[in-house]
Specification:
Layout (H helix, E strand, L loop, with lengths): L1 E3 L2 E5 L2 E5 L3 E3 L7 E5 L6 E2 L44 E3 L3 H10 L12 H22 L9 H16 L5 H7 L4 H12 L3 H19 L4 H7 L5 H12 L3 H14 L5
Helix pairs in contact: 1-2
């Protein structure tokens, strides 16, 4: 992000003049060149990160190596890209907010050790906040990220499924001051499922865990996750996993006995 001043960024076959509040995303491994304005040179805040963890400790001295000459780039250590299109250039609304976001997760680039572990957890929490702002700013409008309101509601729904019976859907969408149609549209766009499908997948996922790691009977598991009957639970379990609950439990027990890693 350009904090102050001006400059030109050349990358991906074109050049862009940037000024205060310009937020730029450059994928790892993409060649680029910054040229600062001679009279009012830019100052920018940088963040180097991976979308997924990449182990580089045996090769690089720092956790976020920066390669200026192209020949030094190790393509094998370039992490996977983001699965959706991100705008290369965006404009932030409040410089102060973004300055604070960058500052809150700044670290020295050192690898985490026993002394820095707790601070690393705090930095990761602050980084998650930054990423939330970043994606809302830089994702194209035709690519959707989950609506924040739906995210908060999913937490409520999951807690209800774990610790009590799920509430009628009307309770959830009225708590968001949404119409039923708008709620269903946002929910499907955010999760890929209808509310009922999402709840069923969530409950079956928890049931799979219990079948693997507890001695609860199939009837007890069906009751625990508020299925109307053990027959409905078994039918839905088979529909979503391709196995009956008892068959799934037996197969997982054999897998553990053979020492084969669980999926």
């Amino acid at each position: 992000m350009i904090n102050e001043g001006y400059g030109v960024l050349s990358t991906n076959g074109h050049s862009s003049k940037l000024g205060p509040g310009s937020l730029v995303y450059i994928p790892a491994g993409q060649l680029h060149e910054w040229v600062a304005d001679a009279e009012n040179p830019m100052i920018h805040l940088c963040c180097y990160f991976d979308w997924h963890y990449v182990e580089r400790k045996a090769v690089f001295d720092t956790a976020c190596p920066i390669c200026y000459p192209p020949q030094e780039l190790h393509q094998a250590f370039v992490g996977p890209g983001f699965p959706y299109t991100l705008r290369e250039n965006s404009k932030v609304e409040s410089l102060r907010i973004w300055q604070d976001l960058f500052q809150d997760f700044y670290n020295s680039g050192s690898y985490t050790n026993e002394q820095t572990f707790m601070r690393s957890l705090m930095i990761q929490r602050n980084f998650q906040t930054f990423i939330d702002y970043f994606l809302n700013c830089c994702m194209r409008k035709d690519d959707l990220i989950p609506d924040r309101r739906i995210g908060h509601m999913l937490k409520m729904m999951e807690q209800d499924l774990l610790h009590g019976a799920p509430k009628p859907l009307e309770i959830y969408y009225k708590s968001l001051n949404m119409s039923r149609g708008h709620f269903f549209e946002l929910f499907r766009k955010s999760t890929g499922y209808s509310p009922i499908q999402y709840m069923n997948h969530f409950r079956i996922g928890r049931a799979k865990h219990d079948l693997q790691h507890t001695t609860l009977s199939i009837t007890q598991i069906a009751e625990k996750y508020h299925f109307s009957s053990v027959h409905y639970f078994s039918r839905l379990f088979h529909q979503l996993t391709g196995q009956a609950p008892r068959q799934y439990r037996l197969q997982q027990s054999k897998t553990v006995a053979l020492g084969t890693p669980l999926e």
